[in-house]
Specification:
The chain is an all-alpha fold. The chain has 15 helices and no strands. It has 2 domains: 195 residues, Growth Hormone, Chain: A, CATH 1.20.1250.20; 191 residues, Growth Hormone, Chain: A (Up-down Bundle), CATH 1.20.1250.20. Keywords: Membrane, Transmembrane, Transmembrane helix.
């Protein structure tokens, strides 16, 4: 099955939309697995009281596994059929989830969580797959649609995990994910077409070639740094929000911080729209507007240390800005070297998550020393760096 098999432009368009919806579902259901454990830490502590001080390792190694998976597995999409890779990773993920659900000790759960993180990079096969299926004039919209699924998976994972964990226990969360993945695999087998490999490089040379892409494409370096800086600003806010809400005048628990994630769904809903604008107006213009929105959100945050309404408005502006920039950046980089989309995406996403880690670290350092105002200033500083990095590259060299 392929979009070219359709009998008319209208049916071809419906076919493409169906495939993009499926890829968005794949991205969301897979990436959710790296966030399921975050609301369950107290449950882990109760199940493994002898190792209570190590429960924080579970989400940490899951994130570490995801970063490793992006670097080591995501580039394989250029070398092999992405459909087969997705199905193989789903099979491996199901095994890891079963081990996690049955873990007799925290050590076993930690090892299983590392494997879950590595294999959750299924999402990083879905996004370049969308760029491959869509015509160039609709690539931004296609990437945006799949990214919206990924973002909804991130936002709703904690909510689903918390509900299932509260009523059925933490082991049921991993079991429910296995069921969801198996059902998804059936749909993939029936509906998702094969992709055409674009490289014959051996695995080692495939990894080394990513460095050559960084050296060769200035626009990739610029997009990666801009994305990293904006995700650093995003991470500063989310890493400190719970601490702000816990203090005066709010005195709110972690559930309140989780509800702000639902507010962030505005960013997920804006992703396809941002992709359409990127297709029509050009991605660089959208990125410029996005950077302004991120900076503006931290101005709002700085003035909202005692206002829930102000924080909600700031979250909406921040998420729309970050996600619009993300979609536009990815639309740009996928056009740089069509036969290396998975590797280009890997370079970008590794830089992106390094930026997120840096932002979380800066937030942890700034909060105790300078408070919420310091956090807001740091967010503006990262947005300013993104603006400098983005605007210093002439538009003619940005392709």
């Amino acid at each position: 099955m392929s979009t070219s098999d359709a009998s008319s432009p209208a049916s071809a368009d419906r076919s493409l939309r169906g495939l993009l919806f499926l890829l968005a579902t794949i991205a969301g259901v897979s990436v959710a697995n790296i966030y399921y454990n975050q609301p369950l830490l107290d449950n882990f502590r109760q199940s493994f009281p002898g190792s209570a001080s190590w429960v924080g390792t579970v989400p940490a190694v899951t994130q570490l596994g995801y970063a490793a998976g992006m670097l080591l597995l995501a580039p394989l999409g250029d070398r092999f059929d992405r459909r087969r890779l997705i199905l193989l990773q789903i099979a491996g993920m199901c095994v890891a989830l079963v081990v996690a659900a049955a873990a007799p000790t925290l050590a076993v759960l930690i090892v299983a969580s590392l494997a879950i993180g590595v294999l959750a990079t299924i999402a990083q096969q879905a996004v370049p797959f969308a760029a491959e299926l869509a015509p160039p004039s609709e690539r931004g919209h296609a990437v945006g649609m799949v990214m919206s699924g990924l973002l909804l998976g991130i936002l709703l994972a904690r909510t689903a995990s918390g509900v299932i964990g509260e009523y059925f226990g933490w082991r049921a969360v991993f079991g429910a994910s296995v069921v969801a993945l198996l059902l998804l695999a059936v749909v993939i087998i029936l509906r998702l077409p094969k992709s055409q490999p674009t490289s014959t490089l051996p695995y080692g040379k495939l990894l080394v070639s990513m460095w050559h892409l960084v050296v060769e494409h200035r626009a990739l370096r610029e997009a990666s740094l801009t994305g990293a800086a904006l995700f650093a600003a995003f991470s500063i806010f989310w890493s400190v929000l719970a601490l702000l809400l816990a203090g005066a005048p709010f005195h709110l628990g972690p559930q309140a911080a989780g509800l702000f994630g639902i507010v962030g769904a505005a960013g997920a809903m804006a992703a396809p729209l941002a992709g359409k604008f990127a297709d029509k107006r050009g991605p660089r213009a959208i990125i410029t507007v996005s950077i302004v929105l991120v900076a503006l959100s931290f101005v709002v945050f700085g003035a909202s240390a005692k206002s829930i309404v102000g924080l909600v408005i700031g979250v909406i502006v921040l998420d729309i800005g970050v996600q619009a920039a993300q979609i536009s950046n990815q639309s740009r980089i996928y056009a740089l070297k069509p036969d290396a989309r998975s590797r280009v995406n890997t370079v970008y996403m590794v830089a992106y998550f390094i930026g997120g880690a840096l932002g979380s670290g800066v937030g942890a350092a700034v909060w105790p020393a300078f408070g919420w105002l310091g956090v807001s200033v740091a967010g503006i500083a990262f947005a300013a760096f993104a603006a400098w990095n983005h605007l210093r590259l002439p538009a003619r060299a940005a392709h």
